[in-house]
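step 3/5: co-fold with zinc ion
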Amino acid sequence: MKNFILFGAIAATFALASCAQEPAYEQTEEIGPFTVSLIKENVWHIEDYNSSHPRGLSIKEDGSYTFNSCSDMYIIRGKKKALLIDLTNNITWTEGADEALRKIFYDRAGDREKIITVTHNHGDHTGMAYAFENEPGISFMLPVNDFKDDKIFPAHKQLIADRDCINLGGMVVDCVQCEGHTPGSMVFFLKGHNLGFSGDAIGSGTGVWIFSKEGFRQYTTGVENLLSYMEDPKSEIDPETFVLWGGHTYQNSGFELGVQTVRDAKELNDQIWNGTAQWEPYNMVARGLDATFKNGQAMVVWNKAASEEAAAEGR
Ligand SMILES: [Zn+2]
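step 4/5: write tokens
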């Protein structure tokens, strides 16, 4: 019975996700605490869950529960270099996560140069940094506004800024800043493949968390910058097929993030500034998050009173 209930919870989690972002998988395997899936040739999606510790909420027969705030990483492999995007949570629910993550990256990178970047400076995206801190042959390339004074990564890190480009050899990654969730949140675009990797910059389908008026001001600018990149023909984005992969894809609420999501986000920000955005209560008052603002595919999770102050002050 216990297993049945647990299986039910896992199945429900997969059912939720499978209606949205996982149709392209050709193979999926568990490696230690991670689940690795192929998105397309030379591009992998890695989540910090396995069948013993599923994504999200799992309720047991005795009423106790586990919660895995699963976070996502991605590997892009070019001819000369391989890039690992994000470093998930610091995994403490099992042993050997560091070794497993090194194996996942090194097996796929082979003898290519290895680069690690992260979308932003939050603990659920930098948690496994320690797995690589003493490793030879790793370069760290990190968003400047989140990491210029940071001590998580070694001193030899290289800082990346808006519109920088990482050439992996036949695979080119454009870096586009979309600040707001953090001051330096970066979105990575795999050019010519209609794929992007957005961390928490615009949320993962359940809203981007914004923590202050200054954060919302930044987010307004960040979304405009993101959209200007995505709508520029030089970016080679097909709005019909382009998909943004978020930092917590299991939270996906039934649609793929894409160009329309960012257009809706820009419109939503205007509505918040005008005081006309539709909203409903959100229950994380301890972190100051008490409202979800919605427009189409876009959601902002923030504070109602702060949004009213912002609207009164104007942009
Ligand atoms: Zn975050």
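step 5/5: annotate
Residues 58 and 64 are 9 Å apart (CA to CA).
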